[in-house]
Amino acid sequence: MWSRERGRLKPLRCGVEELRCRRREREAALRKARREQQLVSKRLLRDEALEEAEEGCVAVIFGEAEIQQFLRLAQRGTEEKEREGALVSLRRGLQRPETQQTFIRLEGSIRTLVGLLTSNRALLQLEAARCLHELSHSEQSAVVEACLPATSYLLTYLSGHSSDFIELCLYTLGNLIVESEAVRRQLLPQGIVPALAACIQSPHLTVLEALGYALSQLLQAKEAPEKIIPSVLGSTLPQHMLQLLQPGPKLNLGVAVEFAWCLHYIICSQVNNALLITQGALSTLGLLLLDLAGAVQRTEDAGLELFLLQKQPSLLPEGLWLLNNLTANSPSFCTSLLSLDLIEPLLHLLSVSNVVSVLVLTVLCNVAEKGPAYCQRLWPGPLLSSLLDTLAFSDTEVVGQSLELLQLLFLYQPGAAQAFLQQSGLQALQRHEEVAQLQDRVHALQQIALHG
Amino acid sequence: MQLPPALHARLAGAPGSAEPLPVERNPAAGTAPFRFAPRLVRFPREHDFFEDGDVQRHLYLQDVLTQVGGAPERPRVPEFTCQVAGCCQAFGALDDYEHHYHALHGNVCSFCERAFPSGRLLDAHILEWHDSLFQILAERQDMYQCLVEGCTEKFRTSRDRKEHLVMRHLYPVDFRFDKPRKSRGPAMPGAAEQVLAETLGDDGVPSEGDAMEVCSEHVEPPPEPAGERRAYSHRCLTRI
């Protein structure tokens, strides 16, 4: 549940260990869901201040009669306060799945709600929108899809001016979008992409973050590469997104996180990355990464979890992947890596994990394969002892990549083979003589080392 | 991995240092049994490589990780009323008032005081309901603009447009911001009763949620439209 009042200290209702355990369970569930291509998460916008003002008691389950009563009062009550109160009660009741089910099965209920959403009473509109939002967050498809009659209005309201209301509409749309392809098949012809493109010009950060969320859900869809991304790329959305990712004093992290994910979904779908590059995506993202890394070194804000390169080993593969693609075919990037003394920091990463080690060694191979001038700069130094260490690994991919690097060093750097022998390199090689994927290369290196 | 300050400066656009080192390859490099060759790597979106990142993303969405944005302040103030003439709504919070203002007083037609959710819908309304030149042109060409943002189609009649909205854009048949005018020709003083009739429904009781149009309690008859004068500038943007 994403709540609005995040800065407040709330008493922990359970211990730290329980929280950790819950997180591990959630993580495991998410991994499983991803493997089954069922990764769906929604956001719930609940105003905790509002709830506390209403003496937040646990929502009661309402039956048909009660729901009908609330709807009737909301529609036709004589007193303004009475009408609002009825809708507020309904909204709180809709926090319960049982009440949601009863509600959607009641004839005319959605129609009435949509009527209130489009009424001339602003507060009723807001409460009706909150009711829809609760429904949109449900795990039951039937409940979520019951909201479909409201979508044309939610989209229409995106071009209004009331930031709170627009924010609510966006989160509701985001939840609906991720529910099913059927929902998206309605939203796309209704013009969701142009509506978002118009809305992204809003100056309100809360609106922008909500928009980023909704858009990220749209871009994450299975059919996005064929059916959604082309029209997004054809709109003004990409240039606005990149603008919102510019580093500097105006950068808002909550907003940036959402649009960074949007860009990721677009880019890895490989629909038209050239277009993004012409719009300056590379420089924007590169500078942003640097800016954030710099910020990380200055502060240890827990909220920057997503960007802590050191603290999150899971980000190293991505960083190294980037380095691989930068250095693979570029002598100038390889030269930069050398002249900026990045080799030693890279070598430090060799003990993190097998995946990371393979990536580090690949980057080093990218540099070494460019010839003697490059290998000369890799030598002497900690490289040899690091390689001898990696030869002690049991992972065949890590060892294999080390062997490739050794071949390049032996080829281009006079004295490398000699030094290798002197530091008991042959013994290090021996343990892999029988390994199927490695033996040919091991023997070849032994020959080169001994006979030149 | 600590980033050396020189790297930051370089990538931020400071003048680069020396030329790239000369490349000089030996054909023996990477030949059997060796196989290394530098290659660009691209991962498709479902690749396992992205699993960790995706999991992080969803933990964040589910609020298991700390949100990075700050929560905006929502001050409550002593009750006050809307200052727009004819409106007496009371509020206890500025945000509620903001929504009320934009919903009811933001895009208001000065002819008939209907409020619209956006400038686009208001403009279409003024053209179609209060502009006599529009009516004349509409007899000869497609003037009814599609209401969906981003769609540039135009239609001969309001009914054709409605059909387009329903068939092409999957809009509801009773979309509330596309009410057709009951009479042909520019809006006449008698329209006031029409407006009332529409809002109240046949039995005089407010129909299922009043359409979000009439902003004040009573409706005044719209002024006679002044001949050929285009009505674009007639908007009720009240300033506090």
UniProtKB/TrEMBL annotation, chain A:
Keywords noted in UniProt: Membrane, Transmembrane
Database matches in InterPro entries: ARM-like (IPR011989), ARM-type_fold (IPR016024), Armadillo (IPR000225)
Repeat among keywords: no
Top-level taxon in the UniProt lineage: Eukaryota
SUPFAM superfamilies associated with the record: ARM repeat (SSF48371)
PANTHER family: TRANSMEMBRANE AND COILED-COIL DOMAIN-CONTAINING PROTEIN 6, TRANSMEMBRANE AND COILED-COIL DOMAIN-CONTAINING PROTEIN 6 TMCO6
Protein name: Transmembrane and coiled-coil domain-containing protein 6 isoform X4
Species this chain originates from: Physeter macrocephalus
TrEMBL record, chain B:
Top-level taxon of the source organism: Eukaryota
Alphabetical list of InterPro entries matching this protein: ZNF511, Znf_C2H2_type
Organism of provenance: Physeter macrocephalus
Annotated ranges, domain C2H2-type: 82-105, 109-130, 146-169
Stretches for region Disordered: 201-232
Regions of compositional bias (Basic and acidic residues) in chain numbering: 215-231
Protein name: Zinc finger protein 511 isoform X2
